[in-house]
Each structure stands twice: as structure tokens, then as C-alpha cells.
Amino acid sequence: MFTRVGLTGGIAAGKSTVAKRFVQLGAYVIDYDQLARQAVAKGSEGLDQVIQRFGRRARGRDGEMNRAWVSAHVFSDPEKLQELNDIVHPIVFREAGRLEYQWLDTHPEPKDGTRRLVVHDIPLLVETSRWDYFDAIITVEAPKETRIRRMIRNRGMKREDAVARINNQASQQQRFDICDYVIDSTKPLEQMFEDVDRLYHVLTHPSY
Ligand SMILES: CC(C)(COP(=O)(O)OP(=O)(O)OC[C@H]1O[C@@H](n2cnc3c(N)ncnc32)[C@H](O)[C@@H]1O)[C@@H](O)C(=O)NCCC(=O)NCCS
Ligand SMILES: Nc1ncnc2c1ncn2[C@@H]1O[C@H](COP(=O)(O)OP(=O)(O)OP(=O)(O)O)[C@@H](O)[C@H]1O
């Protein structure tokens, strides 16, 4: 037995921070942002498809996808964003399924009767309509303004780019509508981690 959790939240809400805590507790985390990068890595079929669709400028001189150029294009045009998603998402979901299978196959069930926990860290859970796939869904939330501040401070983004990214994502209400648990990332880190620890306990015990 295992519990398959979907972990979501808007950009800069704190998903990776929560995911790291789950790893420390013993969960297996599949990072969809990382898989999306692999899907269009240098020399990949995914990147070839992106070039076919968006043109040669989508590839930088180093052979990698030119993420800044692609971002500027897709986050100002919903149709283009959809086209990019249509290329990347099937590759990502296939790989996520493979990784989960591989981990379960190599990590036997604990002898103490608790369940194994697989956490899919997937920013676009609402947008990809895959919520039926999970036993439980967690969303990590902080107000828009807090997230914009984090993006400007930590990622060096311009305010307008941060806002454009938020506006291309599902709303907080849409995430609330599909989730079972909310983690409030405006709490101090230690308190947020205590919430994650409690959730880990609930999700790994068979009565769940
Ligand atoms: C648009 C791209 C080139 C931007 O690259 P960049 O390095 O600036 O951002 P990064 O990949 O680190 O993503 C950071 C955050 O941006 C947001 N974001 C990324 N892609 C999307 C998208 N298609 N729609 C809405 N928000 C998105 C998410 O909150 C994500 O956590 C890149 O994110 C991409 O290829 N996106 C398409 C694949 C995708 O949907 N990834 C999300 C996980 S499935
Ligand atoms: N409870 C908290 N208190 C203060 N800062 C926090 C808290 N949780 C997360 N942060 C900070 O917010 C920023 C964004 O967090 P994180 O990278 O985990 O978000 P994310 O949702 O994974 O982002 P992205 O969507 O860009 O992948 C980080 O600098 C992180 O340290």
C-alpha cells in the first residue's frame, strides 16, 4: 500500500520548501518542474518539438532551451502557452509514472504497517485536470502580494513578469476546490513544518 499525494500551489507559494520537508520525513517526491526541464533538455525530442513550433530562437547558443525567450512569448499569449504545455506535459506525466513505479518497486512496504508516501510536486495540478489520480491533494498557499515579493526578491524577476506568471495560473479558489488540505506558508517556517509533520503522519497511517 502507498498514498499518492498531489502537492500544488501558485508560483512561489512554498511547494519546494514543503516538498523538502516531506523528503526528510521519508516520502518520495517527484518534482514536475525538474521533469519539465528534462523534457526539453539539450538534444531532447521535446526541445526539437519546441523549435519546430516556436522557431530557432527558442534554442540558445549553448543548445539549451532559451527559457527567458520562451517565457516572454508564452506568458503573454495563452494559445502559445497551451501549445508549449501540449508538448511538455505528456512527456512529464509519462516520466513521473515511470519514476513512481521504479521507486515503489525498489522500496518495500515498511514492516510497522505504515504506508509509503509518494508526493507529486506539481505546480499545475488544477490546469492539468489530473486530480482524480491522487489519494489526497495538498495546496500550499500565501497571498498574491507575498508571492510577488518573493519572486522579485529571490528570483530577481520584474514585477510585471511575476504578475504575468500568476495570471497564467489557476486561482486560489480553484485550488481550494480540488484540495483536501491547505498549508499556510505565511506562518513562520517552524510552524509550517509542524503542519507538514502532522500531515505526514495522517497520510502514512492506514486509517487514512
Ligand atoms: C515557461 C518556462 C520555459 C519558464 O521557465 P523558467 O525557468 O522561467 O521557470 P520554471 O520552469 O523554473 O518554473 C517556475 C514556475 O513557473 C510556473 N510555470 C511554469 N510553467 C508554467 C505554465 N506552463 N503555466 C503556468 N505557470 C507555469 C510554475 O509555478 C513553476 O513552478 C518553463 O517553465 C516551461 O517549460 N514550462 C512548461 C512546462 C510546465 O508546465 N512546467 C510546470 C510543471 S508541469
Ligand atoms: N513559511 C514560510 N515563511 C517564509 N518564507 C517561506 C515560507 N515558505 C516558503 N518560503 C520562501 O518562499 C520562497 C518560495 O518558496 P519555494 O521555492 O518553496 O516555492 P515554490 O512554490 O516551490 O516556488 P516555484 O513555484 O517558483 O517553484 C522561498 O524563498 C522560501 O524560502
From TrEMBL:
It catalyses: 3'-dephospho-CoA + ATP = ADP + CoA + H(+). The keyword Transmembrane helix does not apply. Pathway: Cofactor biosynthesis; coenzyme A biosynthesis; CoA from (R)-pantothenate: step 5/5. GO terms for cellular component: cytoplasm. Keywords: ATP-binding, Coenzyme A biosynthesis, Cytoplasm, Kinase, Nucleotide-binding, Transferase. The keyword Transferase applies. This is Dephospho-CoA kinase. GO terms for molecular function: ATP binding; dephospho-CoA kinase activity. SUPFAM superfamilies: P-loop containing nucleoside triphosphate hydrolases. Its EC number is 2.7.1.24. ATP binds at residues 12-17. Belongs to the CoaE family. Signal peptide: none annotated. GO terms for biological process: coenzyme A biosynthetic process. Catalyzes the phosphorylation of the 3'-hydroxyl group of dephosphocoenzyme A to form coenzyme A. It is found in: Cytoplasm. InterPro entries: Depp_CoAkinase (IPR001977), P-loop_NTPase (IPR027417).
